[in-house]
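Supplementary Text 2. Reproducibility record for the structural model of the 644-residue chain.

All settings were left at their defaults, and a single model was retained for analysis rather than an ensemble. We include the record here because the model underlies the residue-level annotations in Supplementary Table 4.
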Amino acid sequence: MLGCSSFMAGRMIMCEGCKSSFGRSTIYQEANQTTARTLAASWQACFQLVLVLTFIPPHHALLQPGKNLQAQYERWQPRAKYKMHLDPTMEDVKKLCISCRRTAKNERVLFHYNGHGVPRPTVNGEIWVFNSRYTQYIPLSMYELQTWLSTPCIYVLDCSAAGLIINNFKAMLEQRQQQLAVQQQQAAATASSMAVPDPMREIIVLGACGANELLPQNPDLPADVFTACLTTPIKVALRWFCSRSLLKHDGISKELIDRIPGRQTDRKTPLGELNWIFTAITDTIAWNSLPRALFQKLFRQDLLVASLFRNFLLAERIMAASNCSPVSYPRLPPTHQHPMWQAWDLAAEMCLLQLPGLLADPNAEFTPSSFFSEQLTAFELWLAHGSADKKPPEQLPIVLQVLLSQVHRLRALVLLGRFLDMGSWAVDLALSVGIFPYVLKLLQTTSSDLRTTLVFIWAKILALDRSCQADLVKDNGHLYFLKYLDAPEPTIDNHNRAQAVFVLAVVCDQHPKGQALCAAANLLQVLLKWLRVQLPVLTASSGNLLLVKWLCLCLGKLADNLPDMAAAAVRDGAADLLAGLLQAQLPDLRAAAVFGLGSLIHSLPRGRGQDAAAAAAAAAAAAAGMDRDMATVGGAAGVAASLG
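Retained model, structure tokens:
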């Protein structure tokens, strides 16, 4: 999440007009271009246009773009606090940066610099601000700005030669790394175990163009096309696509695009569906192009940062057509020619073709795109021929997005389960793309047709990464598996119930909070109930034996180091049930029973529980011919064999 404070500053002067996306600057630029083309034919129209622009109040022309830009950012992060300053002096910038950092504390601060109409940054990466008397420009070094703003922060630099500033940041990074290396050597010499933090790791910079490039001028796009791509990506993308396609001859104009119906948060509307497809495509491009660690940092840790970098990929594509290359720190590989952009063009075209009819008739029905269905089909084809030795499926981020759709959710879950079943490498890939928050949210659904597949997916995830147990119990996700285990439906076989028990065992594994929550949810009685149901009909069925084994192991994990829980389990007959399995033919069953019994004996309270402990030990010894110490040792061997 973005911190509680964001900052927007920059040079905006009268001649630049309004710099907000789709604001007055766009009208001014487009009108100016049109006037230039028709100057010889229509002097009267030109004269009228000049009159209109002349009567724009100067303070309004300066203030309005800032307000529009702030409103666009507020749509991405409505809870953040924004501070705007137009034509700032150096002292203004210093005060605002320090104030924003004080308000944001340890959260991220956004600094947006609009450098249209001011000199290019210096060769040392300095930007320009006014002096205190507004008589001349003076340079502001990024070192000073970073000192005031501190970290974590993100800079958006919409100005010519923004690459000069990026290069300056890289030089700062190299200097900091050298200082950090010296500090680490000093810490090692003093035998200090504290790691020296690297503040530059929390700095992100987005620049509009390279060090030797100027901002593009395109009459079909807003004057501040870089900012427009970052803050209003869908409309900019549609405008750019329409200007390069045959649709401009079919009545699809900029005015129609600006009126596209719907909301970005409603996927059933044209605007919402396009935003959904855009998110899936840009995530896919990033996941297939970036190193895994960088993808996690930029696209999965901070919602606003992820949105800005998705839109940055669009800016790179659009501005590359004007021989302009947006730059960033950390640096991203070129993505403007990625084949997934063709899928976006197709989705945009199919939507725009419906636009005239939708606007002419408010009751007209919008036909959803076939994009997600086609991508699931492509993923299914990969599953038929893919393996660990082949290139990972590029559709994996799209599959996760489809989990949000009720129409395609079941198919996506089944295909995802098939993918995870291919091995631990597949689970690792799914976790790297960000599967966890999606499947965690699905635990809140009540749809019965998703339960079996969802339990299987969670079993695969927790078998590889048990650190997810904390987030699972934080949202009471363990109750989903407890209800599934104890559900009376005959359609749930023992193998599926065993997977649910495995998830509950992992939740309790060396996790006191998970044990406490499972105990409060009456897990003990459910485990004993199913042990009593399964033991009389214990057969060679794999599902039956697997369920009994994990019931024993989960019982041991639930009572481990919890004296009251162990005493309650013995009092309710758990020791007798476990002792009855010590002579089972399968070694896995015997190991699981010994582990469960050993956990009970080890965890029983001393003193007041000696009689119960003695009874449990006597039952175990009578059934298996081993004493109390051997039972405990056997329990350790059992957990190594079954949980290891």
